[in-house]
Amino acid sequence: LPLAEATSIAAQCGMGHGHGHGLTLEQEVRALLQFLHSIGAVLWFDEPVLRDLVTLDPQWLVDGISCVIRNFEIAAHRKPCDEKCEREQERNWSALKRNAKLHTSLLPLIWGEERFAPYHELLLRMMIRFSFAVPLRGKDELIVPPLFVFTEQKAVEAGGSASLSFFLHFNLQIGAGAGARVDEVKEVWGPEQLKQ
To answer: What angle separates helix 90-99 from helix 81-88, to the nearest 10 degrees?
Structure first.
């Protein structure tokens, strides 16, 4: 739900009468959304880009992210978009499945369902927010760290080592409190590059 629509609904339901308390409708809606987020009723982040999305159904977000993060080898995990991705973006699709590299040109195909189509940018920002995807500097690609688990599984099943080596050159963003997250990956060297 776009924030503007949530604000409109709040006004229709009688919010916005806090002017005696010095609050605008927008401030009241933000306070309400922060409270609802804190109790787990909605997902809403008062951050640039993300503040425009109010997620009333957290399962929607899980479904969107699981279009990208899943074990592509399990038949039950296949999605309707898979065939189209293989047909139209074979190289990029293979890079996602084998090397955990997500090219942004895949997003309209992966999130082609009507319920996700208008929200590509916001879904991607949400994945970045939770470090499910990390942008590669100067490229239209992201690394999807959770997919490394499946890459390692495939290596073991193929008779390889139980550990894979990846070298990352990255920027670390230190937030308020004890939080830190990778802000952007500059370069990645994986098993193929290390053999050379």
So the answer is: 110
* β pairing state of 167-174 and 180-189: antiparallel
Helix spans in 39-88 (H):
58-66, 81-88
Torsion sign, CA atoms 152, 156, 159, 161: positive
- Residue 33, phi then psi, degrees to nearest 5: -65, -40
Mean pLDDT of successive 10-residue segments in the chain (196 residues)?
91 75 86 93 88 90 94 89 94 93 96 93 91 88 85 54 51 52 54 46
For residue 101 the two structure tokens come to 């590299």
pTM score of the predicted model: 0.71
Which residue, among 126, 2, 14, has the nearest Cα to 53 in the 3D structure?
A: 2
Q: What are phi and psi of 90, to 5 degrees?
A: -50, -50
State how far the Cα of 65 lies from the Cα of 68, in Å rounded to an integer: 6
